[in-house]
């Protein structure tokens, strides 16, 4: 340990907190003042402290700034306190460390690189370490690292495994580890262990990463390689990319425009001050002399900054705080929505971010994975082709099954849940047909499934993909039961007879091979290679004698009804050849450089001239409500692109199942072609119907996507998408794809999914959403503006990387058409109303400047300026923007076309901003000049003047609040008790605070702070004041109501039409379902985008799955929540057509 300490490796203590008790205040304030808005108000506060400039007390800006900084500071402090607690909890965990020949219990923070630690069952892995354990096997749960709930198996080196748990041998162990520097690659590790002059390779399968948890393992000793901040868990805990909405970007631009507008107004008033000083100011110098050293030019310069202070409310500090409150509230509404709760898995919807809610109402493109997102990712073996004969489901002309379910009672080890309906296949197996038995023998041997048998005969399989589990289960029911395995053997019960095969090699699946093989030796000594894979890959590796059988099998694949297909083949091997190949395979598997390339060459060599057995067809059913959801989203003018790793035929059939492709979309495939040179793509041609029928020469087809605007389908296999995404073709690809209604990309890798998303983001300038359920969707989810994760069968990695998550694809329509649209409308209303009320407030000051000699005197009371945004108008606008609905959720779903205005930014844009400015300017003119005119020569009943600056200021303040509160009431569509309470509370609170501040008691106690004694009481006693308030209110509100009425009558929007229908009609029930028969075209099969487990199987690495069950949140199964079904609605246009047809 002393030797290792000399290298100054990182210790094992972690620190995720940002502050301590001494650094919190300076660091937090520094971070907050890095924000432009806070820095701006700090600058204003400094100006207000300069007596020569400020006509306002510092409290007007200081109070608002202190409130904003305090709220943010408290939030940051709570977050950091929680981080401190987590750090202490982790650093103070105990672990046994081998020191001085004995195990000592130490805290995690005291563990050093080079220590040997002992871990027990269910204990967290302290550090990144290399280890030994019983049988050299360790089972770990990696949920904290990658979200996967399946147990992973790790195996130690033999040289360290021989040490066992002998403390003396471990203490005397002497070796040297050389490895790569710390990095964040969870799936890669390169290193060597040198012991007694021998070097042993270390890879990712021989290390335990910090964050894992030991399961089903009694003990494990590990050598610490990386500690604390160097561990891969901490290396991966960097900040995620911060996403901002388009409204955020627009708001920032508008704030800069407001800065310019503010500077322009201050410049105008400064020029006015200079002119007034020259023409009129000399008259006042006798009793208001200038301060020494300040001449007219300098006075004008100071006036500019004085008006910057007076007019600063154009950019209120409470804007950003209010935005965060609204977003947080709308996020809670998503979390609390019971109609997006999935009771089967006890999974509610979750808003994992609070900054993107309004972006959900502006989605133009959706990029979706297929398997597990549109489908259930629960596979069932339905059909197969064996030696040229097809077996599977049998239907009559009415679509009903002809036969009953097959009885597997003759097989004691059969899975009772498995359904099959073709009795002839069982008869062939039981009659001893050699081809049929070889077919199921291959399925029982060629896989990486791990069996678990807790009781005799109760088998459960742990598979890396649902496809493999379905195929092995099918073989089990037909009499070929995969029972157990060791690194060297596979035990299968064949028709009741136990057979043990010697496992010589697993040629594992990877993304390029698209197949896997096993080489086994039977008890009779026969060597056989069994292979399964995609049809295009297997067919080109078959023996020429299989050509006729291949044609028949291909015909069977062409009518597989969109099922996921797999082709099976085998090859008998020679003993001498196998010995030589095995030796070369061993040399390649231990090579430190070029290992993968050498193994691929050997695999290609042996996997040729195979004999075809047949093909399997596995069904992956659609999730409930997928077709209806896609139809609803399409009516909302949302473009849906499906990006899948499956073949063209499979994705095409799913397209028909999902209503993305329809039978009326006829004719011509192969309409879009691309020309390739030998090295790269040169140019692209698009073939739509041509008048002369002439077509450019074709070399190689690019099938991308879809439906054109004239409803002409184009195949969706992206054969050379890597070429299509290169610089010289991607714009042509995007242009052509965007002409289509539906785009389906096939055989795409995870990286290509992200590239397609980025292509649309960059060039279409549209808001994108990506949705997926697996690790291969993470890059796509992170690339889109909004990422949605589905918690399905492929772990939690997609959910952990997403912004929103739920359990079923059908909830997407509610997320977008209801919550997204509401959030967008609420945020637009908030920003528009906020700018309007502050323009009105500030421009009143601007008009007053022309009547006060441009002296920067304020027309309002200082306390009113302080409380205007933070107290008097804060709650009503929050109430409107948290609860407002133009139409309720059912009408939102019935009329998806309501979603279109958000896509076009109709509710808040630069044009709308200018209209708010004009509206605020008009209201400010009315609010200032009507009271000014009415009070100019008015007298009280006793003949004294009513008007004074305090009374005039109070009248303006009252008129202003009456107008802005009424405007808010006019803008509110949906009233709740909270809205009523907030408006009444703000109005009554204003009068209560005003009367209190202008009272005798406040004057006697705080004479300098509240000098306007009796202003409220004396002003409100006069009837002309109430008449002035009423007249001002009418002149401000009536034009708004009149203009809206005229527009609704002459140019009603879709919202106006639906709101009118909602008031006058009952919501119709769900539309009847129309079942459409779709054609059957060729299907294909795609492996998952992850490396297989073949190398784990041969190295004693077993897969086990932890079963975790949670109590359901809702136990009532007859409720509408439990029976949540997608709703079918008709658009306005459809209803109009129906009513017209009835009249005819």
Automatic annotation (TrEMBL):
Q: Which organism is it from?
A: Oreochromis niloticus
**What membrane topology was assigned to this protein in its record?**
Multi-pass membrane protein
Q: Where is the P-type ATPase N-terminal domain?
A: 6-61
Which family does the record claim for this protein? Belongs to the cation transport ATPase (P-type) (TC 3.A.3) family. Type IV subfamily.
Which PROSITE patterns does the UniProt entry name for this protein?
ATPASE_E1_E2
InterPro entries this protein is in? ATPase_P-typ_cyto_dom_N, ATPase_P-typ_P_site, ATPase_P-typ_TM_dom_sf, ATPase_P-typ_transduc_dom_A_sf, HAD-like_sf, HAD_sf, P-type_ATPase_IV, P-type_ATPase_N
Give me the reactions it catalyses: ATP + H2O + phospholipidSide 1 = ADP + phosphate + phospholipidSide 2
Q: State any GO CC term.
A: plasma membrane
Q: Cite the entry's keywords alphabetically.
A: ATP-binding, Lipid transport, Magnesium, Membrane, Metal-binding, Nucleotide-binding, Translocase, Transmembrane, Transmembrane helix, Transport
Enumerate the spans annotated as P-type ATPase C-terminal domain. Answer: 799-1053
In the UniProt record, the gene name given for this protein reads LOC102076730
Query: Where, by residue number, is the active site?
Result: 369 (4-aspartylphosphate intermediate)
Q: Name one Pfam family in it.
A: Cation_ATPase
Name used for this protein in its record: Phospholipid-transporting ATPase
Please tell me where Mg(2+) binds in this chain.
Answer: 369, 371, 773, 777
Q: Which GO terms describe its molecular function?
A: ATP binding; ATP hydrolysis activity; magnesium ion binding; phosphatidylcholine flippase activity
CDD domains associated with the record: P-type_ATPase_APLT_Dnf-like
């Amino acid at each position: 340990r002393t030797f290792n300490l000399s290298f100054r490796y990182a210790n094992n203590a972690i620190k995720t907190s940002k502050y301590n008790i001494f650094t919190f205040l300076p660091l937090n304030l520094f971070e907050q003042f890095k924000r432009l808005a806070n820095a701006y108000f700090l600058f204003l506060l400094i100006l207000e402290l300069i007596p020569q400039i400020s006509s306002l007390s510092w409290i007007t800006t200081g109070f608002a700034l202190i409130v904003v900084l305090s709220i943010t500071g408290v939030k940051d402090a709570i977050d950091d306190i929680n981080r401190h607690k987590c750090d202490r909890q982790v650093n103070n965990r105990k672990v046994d460390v081998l020191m001085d020949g004995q195990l000592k219990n130490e805290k995690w923070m005291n563990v050093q690189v080079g220590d040997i630690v002992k871990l027990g069952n269910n204990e967290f892995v302290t550090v990144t370490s290399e280890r030994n354990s019983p049988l050299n096997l360790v089972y770990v749960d990696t949920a904290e690292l990658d979200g996967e709930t399946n147990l992973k198996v790790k195996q130690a080196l033999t040289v360290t495994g021989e040490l066992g748990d002998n403390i003396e041998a471990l203490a005397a162990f002497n070796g040297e580890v050389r490895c790569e520097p710390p990095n964040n690659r969870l799936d890669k590790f390169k290193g060597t262990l040198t012991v007694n002059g021998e070097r042993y390779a270390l890879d990712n399968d021989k290390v335990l990463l910090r964050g894992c948890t030991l399961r089903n393992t009694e003990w494990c000793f590990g050598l610490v390689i990386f500690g604390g901040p160097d561990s891969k868990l901490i290396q991966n805990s960097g900040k995620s990319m911060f996403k901002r909405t388009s409204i955020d970007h627009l708001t920032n631009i508008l704030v800069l425009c407001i800065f310019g507008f503010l500077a322009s107004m201050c410049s105008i008033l400064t020029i006015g001050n200079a002119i007034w000083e020259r023409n009129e100011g000399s008259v006042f110098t006798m009793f208001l002399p200038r301060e020494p050293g300040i001449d007219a030019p300098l006075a004008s310069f100071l006036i500019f900054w004085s008006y910057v202070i007076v007019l600063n409310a154009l950019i209120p500090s409470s804007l950003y705080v209010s935005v965060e409150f609204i977003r947080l509230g709308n996020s809670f509404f998503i979390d609390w929505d019971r109609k997006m709760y999935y009771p089967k898995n006890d999974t509610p919807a979750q808003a994992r971010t609070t900054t993107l809610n309004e972006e959900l109402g502006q989605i133009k493109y959706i990029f979706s994975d297929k398997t597990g997102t549109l489908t259930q990712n629960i596979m069932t073996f339905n059909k197969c082709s064996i030696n040229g004969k097809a077996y599977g489901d049998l239907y009559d002309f009415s679509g009903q099954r002809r036969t009953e379910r097959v009885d597997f009672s003759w097989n004691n080890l059969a899975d009772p849940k498995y359904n099959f309906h073709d009795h002839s296949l069982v008869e062939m197996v039981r009659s001893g047909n050699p081809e049929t038995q070889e077919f199921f023998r291959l399925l029982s041997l060629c896989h990486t499934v791990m069996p678990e048998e807790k009781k005799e005969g109760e088998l459960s399989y742990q598979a890396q993909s649902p496809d493999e589990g379905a195929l092995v289960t099918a073989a089990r029911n037909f009499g070929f039961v995969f029972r157990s395995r060791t690194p060297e053997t596979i035990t299968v019960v064949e028709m009741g007879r136990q057979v043990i095969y010697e496992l010589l090699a697993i040629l594992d699946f990877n993304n390029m091979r698209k197949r896997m093989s096993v080489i086994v030796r039977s008890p009779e000594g026969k060597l056989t290679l069994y292979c399964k894979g995609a049809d295009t890959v297997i067919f080109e590796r078959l023996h020429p004698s299989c050509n006729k059988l291949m044609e028949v099998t291909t015909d069977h694949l062409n009518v597989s009804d969109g099922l996921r297909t797999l082709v099976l083949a085998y090859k008998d091997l020679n003993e001498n050849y196998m010995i030589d190949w095995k030796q070369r395979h061993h040399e390649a598997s231990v090579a430190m450089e070029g290992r993968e390339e050498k193994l691929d060459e050997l695999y290609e060599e042996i996997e040729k001239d195979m004999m075809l057995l047949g093909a399997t067809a596995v069904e992956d059913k659609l999730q409930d409500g997928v077709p209806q959801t896609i139809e609803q989203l399409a009516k909302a003018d949302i473009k849906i692109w499906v990006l899948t790793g499956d073949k063209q035929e499979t994705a095409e059939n799913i397209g028909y199942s999902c209503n993305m492709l329809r039978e009326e979309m006829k004719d011509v495939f192969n309409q879009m072609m691309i020309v390739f040179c030998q090295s790269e793509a040169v140019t692209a041609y698009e073939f739509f119907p041509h008048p002369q029928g002439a077509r450019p020469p074709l070399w190689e087809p690019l099938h991308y996507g879809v439906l054109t605007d004239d409803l002409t389908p184009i195949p969706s296999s992206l054969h050379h998408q890597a070429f299509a995404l290169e610089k010289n073709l991607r714009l042509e690809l995007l242009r052509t794809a965007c002409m289509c209604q539906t785009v389906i990309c096939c055989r795409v890798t995870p990286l290509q999914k992200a590239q397609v998303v980025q292509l649309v983001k960059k060039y279409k300038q549209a808001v994108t959403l990506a949705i997926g359920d697996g690790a291969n969707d993470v890059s796509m989810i992170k690339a889109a503006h909004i990422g949605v994760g589905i918690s399905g069968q492929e772990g939690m990695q997609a959910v952990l990387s997403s912004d929103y998550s739920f359990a079923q694809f059908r909830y997407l329509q509610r997320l977008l058409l209801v919550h997204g649209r509401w959030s967008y409308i609420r945020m637009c209303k908030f920003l528009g109303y906020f700018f309007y009320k502050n323009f009105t407030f500030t421009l009143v000051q601007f008009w007053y400047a022309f009547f006060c000699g441009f002296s920067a005197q304020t027309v309002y009371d200082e306390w009113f300026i302080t409380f205007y945004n933070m107290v008097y108008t804060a709650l009503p606008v929050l109430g409107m923007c948290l609860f407002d609905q133009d139409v309720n959720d059912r009408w939102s779903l019935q009329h998806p076309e309501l979603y279109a205005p958000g896509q076009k930014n109709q509710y808040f844009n630069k044009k709308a901003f200018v209209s708010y400015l004009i509206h605020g300017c008009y209201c400010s003119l009315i609010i200032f000049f009507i009271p000014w005119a009415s009070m100019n020569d008015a007298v009280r009943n006793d003949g004294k003047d009513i008007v004074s600056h305090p009374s005039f200021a109070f009248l303006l303040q009252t008129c202003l609040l009456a107008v802005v509160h009424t405007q808010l009431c006019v803008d509110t569509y949906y009233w709740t008790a909270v809205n009523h309470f907030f408006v009444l509370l703000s109005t009554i609170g204003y009068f209560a605070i005003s009367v209190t501040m202008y009272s005798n008691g406040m004057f006697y106690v705080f004479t300098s702070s509240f000098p306007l004694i009796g202003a409220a009481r004396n002003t409100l006693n006069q009837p002309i004041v109430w008449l002035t308030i009423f007249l001002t209110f009418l002149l401000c509100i009536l034009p708004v109501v009149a203009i809206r009425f005229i527009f609704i009558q002459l140019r009603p929007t879709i919202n106006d039409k639906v709101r009118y229908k909602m008031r006058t009609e009952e919501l119709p029930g769900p539309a009847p379902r129309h079942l459409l028969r779709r054609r059957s075209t060729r299907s294909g099969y795609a492996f998952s985008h992850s490396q297989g487990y073949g190398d784990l199987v041969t190295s004693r690495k077993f897969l086990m799955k932890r079963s975790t069950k949670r109590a359901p949140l809702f136990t009532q199964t007859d409720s509408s929540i439990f029976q949540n079904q997608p709703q079918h609605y008709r658009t306005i246009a459809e209803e109009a057509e129906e009513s017209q047809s009835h009249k005819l």
